[in-house]
Please model this.
Amino acid sequence: MQMTRSIRQGLVGLLVAGVAVGCTGTAGGGHVTGGSGSTGSPGAAGSTGTPGTAGTTGSPGTGGGIVMTGGGGTTGNPGTAGTGSSCVGACVCMKGIPATSQVPRITRLQYDTVVKELLGVTTLASANNLAPSSLLAEDSSGPLTDISWNGYLSAAEKIAAAVMANATNKAKYISCDPTAAGTAGTTCLQNTIMTFGRKMFRRPVTTTEVTSFMRFNTLTPAHTGNDVAEAILYAFLASPSFIAVPELGQTMDTTTGALQLTPYEVATRLSFLIWNSVPDDMLNAEADGNRLATATQIRTQAIRMLQSPKAAAVATTFHRSYSNIAIGTPWTNNSAHTIDNYTSATYNAAMAELDAFFADVVVGGGTFADLFTSPTGFVTSALAPIYGVTSTATTPTKMALDATKRPGFLTRVAFLSTFAHEATSSPILRGAFITQRVLAIPVGDPDPKFLAMTPPAGDYKTNREAMEALTMGAPCNGCHTTKVNPPGFVLERFNAIGAWQDTDPLMGPINSTAEVTFSTVPEVKKTVTSPAELMAEIAKTPNAQRNYAEKFVSFAAGRSPNSNDACIVDQLSTSMATPTYTLASMMADYTQADSFRVRTLGN
Model:
């Protein structure tokens, strides 16, 4: 079904009257208003920098139209540094609430997750069978441009049409008959606006909003109930109250001096963080009952949600950010190899295994140590030969791998094959990743002119010998000999695609013993002889634990590490030193930070 030209024009007119291009969100609680606030200036870098300055309030729009969460112009983005500013080096705890954006937009992943969960739509035939978010611009917290706004409108129209054309999907949206005669059809539409709108807006729909949405039922010429229902769904999908995540509560918190988030804003923070989706019925009920005001109430819900299979969302999205294993990111090389029939299917299966592994650790009650020591694998027929196991599975299937060879994600094909060359392993790429990304030991980026260097001529029996010769001279020696190379040498037990090897392709025996630097302040060096030993040491290294906690807080809060957030980072990393402390507990404990339930803006 396609909306008629008149109803589409009426809909666009109502939306445009209330949503000005350049708006990053909405404020207040009446009709949608326009106006484009100016972008705030970023906070200054450094240990004691100042917060960013909020942009000026935009002027109100003139149209009535659809009632959203609107009432004023958009406030400019505050500086990302927050009140404690970003840090150079380790962040030191400074009490305070970092400045945050009032109106971030949901990500493309969250958009797809919500559309799938609420409407059953995963792909659009009218968009080359791609995901709905394929019609959107890239994720952005900046001003809403003409291009990105038109993307939302296009996606909304195609999704609404697909839903109304499919009985199963339509039933997820509307459970009554909008074409019924008399008041029955009108009542059906009103009830749908209230029930479905509660889910889409993550808060109750106001009486004024219901009236505004029902204007579609009175347009001239008259339209069928199904046409009106499709137009209402279009309007929901194009609404700033769905697209944006406004945090506009005005009640002052007497303890912190900051502004309290409303129960609905807290529920939304929880659901988008843990599930990448909207709150479920239980979380909505807690918000409706004003039972998300205290840290204890929030943690209770966080724990419940993290025990759900839907918590795989936070497990995969965060660990993709934490591990940063993808071609095109710093210190990566290949997803294709010229040995052992390695194909793009192999690489895709390897990346799917990582997602499944991280989800299993988080939802299954695993710890930080399990990330590096668990031998649990999720294997397909494409990965089985590399792991030396038998499998005909076409989807990641859980099985135990050899614990002496495959502990944790750094011994898996995804990491090992990405950080390698086409036909040879790369102890430098692998070692640099572990040193910088996992152990948080600063090394610095190499001068580009050194990246094309090759080992001096010599009769090398192993790749390790060649790399030692390559990096032994100045200026490489300082970092490579003591920091970068050693963990990579330990992982020389794995070839370019991640298969175990005892003999190097150059025919020499593999030497996986190295003195690895695990910390520089204080300096901690240990002789390691095997990948399993390396993983066990990483798992109990304090700076690796704190680095992990800091990356999670930065991910969850959507801002760079700063001295205010360093306080909760310190608490989480201290708890992580306890061997039984689970990652789910760490994530739930993050919600106990004052900054999770209150907000402040830049000056």
Observations:
- The beta strands are 259-260, 376-379, 397-400, 514-520, 523-528, 598-599.
- The two ends are 50 Å apart (CA to CA).
- Confidence is low (pLDDT under 50) at residues 16-84.
